[in-house]
């Protein structure tokens, strides 16, 4: 018997002797202080005299039980929907082998890097030891490994090599879908890199951007570049037409000097960037509005003394989340890329790409957190049985699975449409769908991921810590997905700018009998809204976008359930999805939600003043 335990035994026996005087003294077990295995109880127990009372803990008060945490397994092999989707549309052994190998590496190695990126966020070194201004953004070794990995795995290159034709984008998005939750947010600079490559490609690759395009799409780590996206100024937000104050001063050699302040620059450690500015004429005047904006290409370089050329880093942003990626306030200069006055039009291709990336990251987060919650249900015991044996718990997880499936099919279909457009195979309807669905899917998945990740916290109390430990995906990241690349309201209004809304939606009706009613309601709403003032449809824009997303997701779920390799669970998912109110805009219209009087009532409610005593 250890000395400490013997003394404790003797002390307790003396102090409690009167209580146990006439009571039989059965043996009880007191555990030793050796470390217990996770999710188990220690077996190295010793029997003690009952005069000590019942002491379940020895030396420490934390007890012996530790809940097993969910295990991250190969995300490709564990995802039945992803594998089924690819088996149907891209049945390539090369693709399956690559994704399986990559999935194993993500689970065993890359996920740890993502955690390292989170616990070692970037920091800004303004001055060197001798007082010279250097503005070095210091990032972790794991962040640098993510860059090398991205090149080696072709996470941008796949979309431009087009080895698999119109399905190359689906292949690329599948790989990003596996990578994103473990990437330590490195998918953000990859999205902007992909977007920049698309812009350079669409404007015609010539010097000096030919070299940049080659580097952005390279598989060689030593050549691979990432791109920033430096648009936001102090006036901020999606309204870049009125918010951009940076000016471009023409130089004698044909280049420009940019003078201005960028309030929020994403991926500040990038090798190059695209940014907006207004060109000054000889009198110093600029053209206001979107017509006065031009897009500029700028390399991020240093002189022979290591000083940034034309860029001064003011500070890194103190953000609520997404701290893994450096975001800063900058003063900068650069080189021209687009024609004068074509800035906003030039970045349209970038926005398409980055919004699709955003959707993929949202869906990937949904799948990862759902998978962890599902695994946790097989490890956590409550009320005498595992969580997976509680029907209500399984019902909750099942509903999450339906949401995740719908989001996945929405995001992948936009990737499919992008691939068709880039391969020259897109019909006019495909082009309209891509234009419409890109903001709709970004909007809807950005909202879905917030709801589902919150739900995962409820179905497993360990999930919040898992978000920053096992999955390396910070809990605040889902919140930013609904904001970045256009808020929900901005994207809803973007939907309205798409043409021929009703034409291609009605063409879905033969394949989606289960949503015929929703399509009819949508058509009736649009016909009625067309006879009203523009403000009516603007008020309905948010609900209209939600309706489009739900109806189209239902069509995709039904379509996926109809292919020969589908399972009965694919049918079940489609049926469950279509149980909800698919056309919320029609339901809200019936209650008078968009009538002219509601706008003033909404404003009055928001700014209601307290009654004075």
TrEMBL record:
InterPro entries the record matches: ACDH-11_C, Acyl-CoA_dehydrogenase-like, Acyl-CoA_Oxase/DH_mid-dom, AcylCo_DH-like_C, AcylCo_DH/oxidase_C, AcylCoA_DH/oxidase_NM_dom_sf, AidB_N
Residues of the Acyl-CoA oxidase/dehydrogenase middle domain: 229-333
Pfam families: ACDH-11_C, Acyl-CoA_dh_1, Acyl-CoA_dh_M, AidB_N
Keyword Oxidoreductase: yes
Domain of life, source organism: Eukaryota
Coiled-coil region list: none
Boundaries of every Acyl-CoA dehydrogenase 11-like C-terminal domain copy: 505-607
Molecular function GO labels: oxidoreductase activity, acting on the CH-CH group of donors
Adaptive response protein AidB N-terminal domain mapped to chain residues: 73-203
Required cofactor names: FAD
Keywords: FAD, Flavoprotein, Oxidoreductase
Domain Acyl-CoA dehydrogenase/oxidase C-terminal: 341-497
Family statement drawn from the similarity comment of this UniProt entry: Belongs to the acyl-CoA dehydrogenase family.
Protein's recorded name: Acyl-CoA dehydrogenase family, member 11
Source organism: Oryzias latipes (Japanese rice fish)
Encoding gene, per UniProt annotation: LOC101173711
